[in-house]
Target: Aconitate hydratase
Amino acid sequence: MPNSFGTLSTLPVGGKAYSVHRLAVLEQVHPQAKKLPFSLKVLLENLLRNENGLSVRKADIEALALWQPKAEPTTEIAYTPAHVLMQDFTGVPCVVDLAAMRDAMKALGGDPARINPLVPVELVIDHSVQVDDSGNPQAFANNTHLEYERNQERYQFLRWGQNAFRNFKVVPPETGIVHQVNLEYLARCVFVDEHGAAYPDTLVGTDSHTTMINGLGVLGWGVGGIEAEAAMLGQPVSMLIPQVIGFKLHGHLKEGATATDLVLTVTQMLRKKGVVGKFVEFYGPGLALLPLADRATIANMAPEYGATCGIFPVDAETLKFLRATGRPEELVVLAEAYYRDQGMFHDAATPEADYTDTLELDLGTVEPSLAGPTRPQDRVALKDVKKSFAEALPKLKAVKKPIPALPMTGPAVSDPVDVPGGVLKDGSVVIAAITSCTNTSNPSVMMAAGVLAKKAVARGLVSQPWVKTSLAPGSKVVTDYLTNAGVLPDLEKLRFHVVGYGCTTCIGNSGPLPDTVSEEIRVEQLVVSAVLSGNRNFEGRVHPEVRANYLASPPLVVAYALAGRIDIDWDTEPVGTGSDGLPVFLRDIWPTHEEVQTAIAGAIHQDSFSRIYGSVFEGDANWKALSVPSGNMFQWDAASTYIANPPYFVGMTATPPPVNEITGARVLALLGDSITTDHISPAGSIKKDSPAGKYLIERGVTPKDFNQYGARRGHHDVMVRGTFANVRLKNQLVPGVEGGFTRHLPDGEHTTIFEASTAYQAAGVPLLVIGGKEYGSGSSRDWAAKGTNLLGVKAVLAESYERIHRSNLVGMGVLPLQFRTGESAASLGLTGEEIYDIKGLVDGLKVNFAGAAKELAVHAVRADGTRVEFYAVCRIDTPQEVLYYLHGGILPYVLRQLLATR
Model:
């Protein structure tokens, strides 16, 4: 490593000497680096440690050290995370690719055992449990049984991976939510590698709410599966040096306000400010009084306020939390020594950093709130919810489309609920769920829910019978402290029984409503409500029959279950009638700050964390009973419709074949502006008459067992059939038609995109997709690029790209081309019926032309023989991307690198 600035040094702590890169040495050369925000200092250290003259150059380090806060981001750097965090939906295809790489390595004569993650990877299974059963003591066991029944193949595969790969660990189902398990156990705060180097813990995760760990001072955010695969194979993540918004906190929360109220306030403020693509960093005197769980709650919501991350610096509260959760004392001592030595430890004397812009909040002004009915940034003061719902109702009622029944993947096991007709009204609460990583990580709000339940039970209150209640703790530690405090029995008396440990209602795994409730909603076209302690409430997300969804603190979730309706004025209307026949108001049962803190103090113990996480990777009897293949090579089952060996390495050679020009290409789809990865990537339910549905039926899978695309992300034959199959896709080759359809040319046959691609590939015809502005925006779904590749698309030509999707296309060996500024398919008269040749690619790659704008000639020949000739910018943007493309993608590139160093 070049070590251009001479920052490599040692740090003695506790009798050990750790290798570190000292920022103070660089700051002597570039003094303004002293005033970098905490988050950028983490990135700066990352560049210093990974400088190699190729992906990280001296100039990149200087660009970050000389950061201009107000400048628009233009400089791209390579960030190398210390580890990778996954959940099961997004993690399974990554492990499938690793298993396929072992097969390819063996076929090429190499040692398959060399294929392992090159950085630590942890996968937490938390996205597959559904609330089929609730409100009774058997709910947890019943939901767990159904979870294993539906996901047996996926779980067997992950258990094999747990044994077969080094640097890969799996946290089994029903342990906790990925982000809370990371916060309470997996995160290191300061990382120590096998060579004794110490540096800030950093990560990327395959879930947008990876940012929750920012509350611990750990820099990380959510990425798509391809970026995660690259990171776990030792490749850097490309990013622009970001702008950083400083958020100053002072004061403390007043009586009655919760951390949930605080995060809804922060989310509203930052959405109004506009922080998309930026870092947000919290600072100020208010940090000293803000518990780490509250910080994690705020950091978790970074995707909702639009930021890449929402980070808090390391300080005394960080160290307190590390000790409280049972981390080794050696780690805690090292964390304090390291961050103090680097000038990154926050205390009262810490000078204010330079920021792009700042906001400020007096915590004492935060008031009890909800957010809804359809967006997390739409905060409503608790006292105004009744009025707000009444104002929103006409718009919600105006949605005339039929309310669909929830597709079931297994039997409903809940006891029938007797709800006589006419009881439900517009505004009735039919789901009250304590769910999601946002709040189930936070003892103050979870204990507040328990204390409120105890008070409510003491007054004789009950949850309304039409409300589907559920409690999905973020980890088993939560159940432990609710039990220790004596409040879990009271929650259960209100039918808040534990239904599972995972992301349930917040990701739409809310399960079915009782038939009587569903029927009345459909017949009367009611606008009913869900109240959940989650982070997302977008239209249709929580439950297809529920149009008004509100985010709220756990105690308010319980309160709304008691009331049974969203349109209640808490100041003037009672929650219900007590056993003494008198009205009970919310203020009568609302927990005080002192009551909550007293309950927490007597219930949360360090040994709970040590005991519960001591065997976290072992799993329960269900996990241990799985039949698991043995050996380093996975034994693929040709009959499986969940796990399959992907074809990325078919015919692969030890050295990459020459890149060919793209000639004779046909257009598979001609698309407009703002084509998102949701349009491209398979998602949601599988229709029985779709190519994927037909494929499953042909293999004996009945529609009720289709499951979601998300559960089948490990099977390329299912996923490729769902690529470009979104029901709202508008392909201009078939005007007036929505969905995954196209015309096969030159015969003009109308068919599905998948079937057309199959015919083209059989005839050896390369394919092209043409798009407009902001192509690939939205979530960075890996299958948006993987599916494009498997459909035989060799290039995408668009007016502009979302940055990550462009990178993902290169990572899958697909060429991203961009129209010149001011040009488009329409301006050039392109109809999609032409035959295309792309000229100059081979010569350009020979001279490694990445980094500057470079243009390739495109020749389009119409059916009548006339030609359109124009130039398009090649968007292979970095030298590293050139290597990926030359090798046919990231995975073949890494495989050949490992093969060459045997």
Summary: The mean pLDDT is 93. Residues 139-164 form the longest helix (26 residues). The radius of gyration is 28 Å.
